[in-house]
Design goal:
The chain is of the alpha+beta class. The protein has one domain. The protein has 6 helices and 5 strands, in the order H-E-E-H-E-H-E-E-H-H-H.
Length: about 180
């Protein structure tokens, strides 16, 4: 397989995203997520994970108030993704029985998603005036990250000091929003 073939396969790979409190997130086949959607029948007690396309994660944040400090980027083959039900806003439930076809590509700070998706500082960074790396935001440029690649950043590879800073900043951000932690 050529480098082009590898890159093309990666571009076609359907990534899904999951908000999490865990900087070292891993798929847990025993996890039963809470289903907050309005449904005709009870969907609780199912093992698996809820995911969203990258461009819809913001709806979980601002639309539903599901704020979490990290985002897990999951990759799976097209057949696995097609075998899931597409729910409101593109949300999907990936059953634990499909986890052998799903891998965690990386776990990133929440603000990394904003940098990649919108090219701008993230929600936490903007409100606190500092980056998740701990640097003061000096630039007034609206889209300082447009076109940049952050695929090498993975919180599972960060030091405990870096994770603590991200978590503390997130907690400060939530307090500023008036949310109890």
């Amino acid at each position: 397989m050529t480098a082009f073939d590898t890159a093309w396969a990666l571009l076609k790979m359907p990534f899904q995203y999951h908000l999490t409190d865990n900087a070292n997130f891993a798929l847990d086949p025993d996890y039963e997520p809470q289903d907050n959607a309005t449904a005709i029948f009870d969907r609780s007690g199912r093992k698996g994970i809820y995911t969203s396309p990258k461009d819809k994660v913001e709806r979980w944040l601002n639309g539903e108030g599901y704020w979490r400090p990290y985002v897990a980027e999951l990759e799976m083959d097209e057949a696995t993704l097609e075998g899931t039900k597409n729910r409101w806003n593109g949300e999907r439930f990936i059953p634990a029985s499909s986890f052998n076809n799903v891998s965690v590509r990386r776990v990133m700070p929440l603000d990394m998603l904003a940098r990649e998706e919108y090219g701008s500082h993230g929600w936490v960074e903007e409100d606190l005036g500092r980056t998740f790396e701990g640097d003061k935001i000096e630039s007034k440029e609206l889209y300082p990250f447009r076109g940049m690649d952050f695929s090498d950043i993975d919180t599972r590879q960060m030091t405990q000091e870096q994770i603590d800073r991200i978590q503390n900043d997130f907690n400060d951000f939530m307090r500023l929003r008036g949310d109890n932690l």
